[in-house]
Amino acid sequence: MIVLLLGSSRPKANGLAFLPGWVAGIAVIVAALTLLLDTVEASGSGDPNALAGILCLALGAGLLLLAGRKFAKRIKQSTAGSLPRWMASAETMAPSRSLVTGLALSAANPKNPMITAAAGVTIGAASLSVSEELWAMAAFLVVCSVTVAIPAAGYLLAR
After folding, report:
1. What Å distances lie between residue 35 and 47, 59, 134, CA to CA?
2. Cα angle 93, 11, 80; round to 5
3. Rounded distance, CA 8 to CA 1, Å?
4. Where does the pLDDT of residue 80 fall: very low under 50, low under 70, confident under 90, or very high at 90 and above?
5. Residue 35 CB neighbours (<10 A)
6. How far is residue 127 from each of residues 14, 17, 18, 32, 36, measured CA to CA in Å?
7. How confident is residue 31, by pLDDT bands cut at 50, 70 and 90?
8. Which one is predicted more confidently, 92 or 138?
């Protein structure tokens, strides 16, 4: 999507608006699950590592189910398709809508929130200090955002 936005009528504004939306969508998921496991650990009501294991198994099973479903519904190579309406609208998209699109797309593809949730579970169950958790979340956000940030930065540097 970032490539489509960088080819739109307002590439700079749309690219710079999409990136924070993408980062915010990922940050909310990873922070929520980190906080959940921290709360379980602090309350003493359960073993956060056991909960983390159960959540990771559930997330892994969910990813396997999604992969199986995707494989079963795959489109044959010879079938020509058209762009989805939201993707075709990238040309005329306003920056505010680019921000919302970034937020939505970071959570719309089921694998993104599942992988992000697994990171939040792992960070939350690691018995880290608050500052260590923040650094771990920041590192995860940087890695997750590289595929969006590099094209945007490349466009800005090329101009």
Report:
1. 14, 18, 11
2. 65
3. 11
4. low
5. 13
6. 39, 35, 33, 16, 13
7. very high
8. 138
The whole-angstrom separation of Cα 33 and Cα 20 is 20
In the prediction, which pLDDT does 132 show? 95
Which candidate, 60, 127, 109, places its Cα nearest to that of 101? Answer: 109
In the chain, what are the domain boundaries? 2-70+92-158
Q: Could you tell me which residues come within 8 angstroms of residue 107 by beta carbon, excluding any fewer than 6 positions away? A: 25, 29, 113
DSSP string, 38-107: HHHHHHTSS-HHHHHHHHHHHHHHHHHHHHHHHHHTPPPTT------HHHHGGGG--HHHHHHHHHHHHH
- Identity (one letter) of the amino acid at 127? S
